[in-house]
Amino acid sequence: MKNIKSKLAISIVFLFSSLFFSCQENEDPNSISQGEMIVKFDNYVGNQNMVIDEVGSTNYRYSNANGQEFNLTRFGYYISHVRLEGPNGEVFIDEMNASADAKQIKGYYRVVQGESDTYNIHLKNIPAGQYNKIIFNLGVKEDGIQEGAVGGILDRAAGAWFWNWNSGFINYIIEGHSPASLRDENRLQIHIGGWKNIPSADENPQRFFDNNVEVSLPFDATVMVSETMRPSPHIIMDLLKVIGDTDLAIQNNIHSPAAAVPFVQKLAEAFVVDHTHQ
């Protein structure tokens, strides 16, 4: 009987030891559960959905605080350096990579009104956890972009919104028509950008500014990211927060970093998380 009990005890000890070491062997310290998030951007002009008209259109859909009517023939903006933060120290930083190969570009996005496939940003490989804030750069920073060939939405030859290597990219582009503008065909062109802060070396006013803007937005509720839960925050951008008080009779032709500075100060307030689908 004693031999049977001893053998049984040894067997139990061996079983638990095997399970313990088996669990240790199966644990991968580098294996972390991950998930995804779809960030949707929706552009408005005040309380109206943004609509793009053809160049030359006299259908003035919108008006600003000065009662000046206008329409839009092109609108969009660059987004980069996306980051998520959570209430318990969770952090996700979107991978960045600029390359001549469009397929290798990571972390750079361009939202173009009228091109619905650009409205959603798909974030992948997010560590599972809770998140309650999204932070992103509105624009394209100089760091990471070399003075050479870049592809995709950063490719000048393919229509990237690029000025030159001192001024950088146009981060936020507004084009349309307004009867308040006395330019040819009542043109309205407000190009907001710049990626270098270069003080003037003489008595002339400073020409080059870093007009990238960090936008930090709290979610309307804490969301959970996991292998089975893919939340989707819905961000609304209101153009009137940027040009609502602009006198379009005067400020209708903005094409330099220096001239764009007054508009840059309003950009962060134009974005808000309206709601989040969990």
Tell me what you see in this structure.
- With 278 residues, this protein is mostly beta strands.
- The chain has one domain (32-277).
- The protein has helices at residues 2-26, 240-243, 257-267; strands at residues 34-45, 48-49, 62-63, 69-85, 91-93, 108-112, 120-127, 129-138, 162-164, 168-177, 187-193, 195-198, 208-210, 213-225, 232-238, 253-254, 271-277.
- Strands 3, 4, 5, 6, 8, 9, 10, 11, 14 and 16 form a ten-stranded mixed beta sheet that branches. Strands 1, 2, 7, 15 and 17 form a five-stranded mixed beta sheet that branches. The chain has a two-stranded antiparallel sheet with strand order 12-13.
- The longest helix has 25 residues, at 2-26.
- The chain starts with a helix and ends with a strand.
- This is Copper-binding protein MbnP-like domain-containing protein.
- Residues 1-23 form the signal peptide.
- Residues 35-255 form the Copper-binding protein MbnP-like domain.
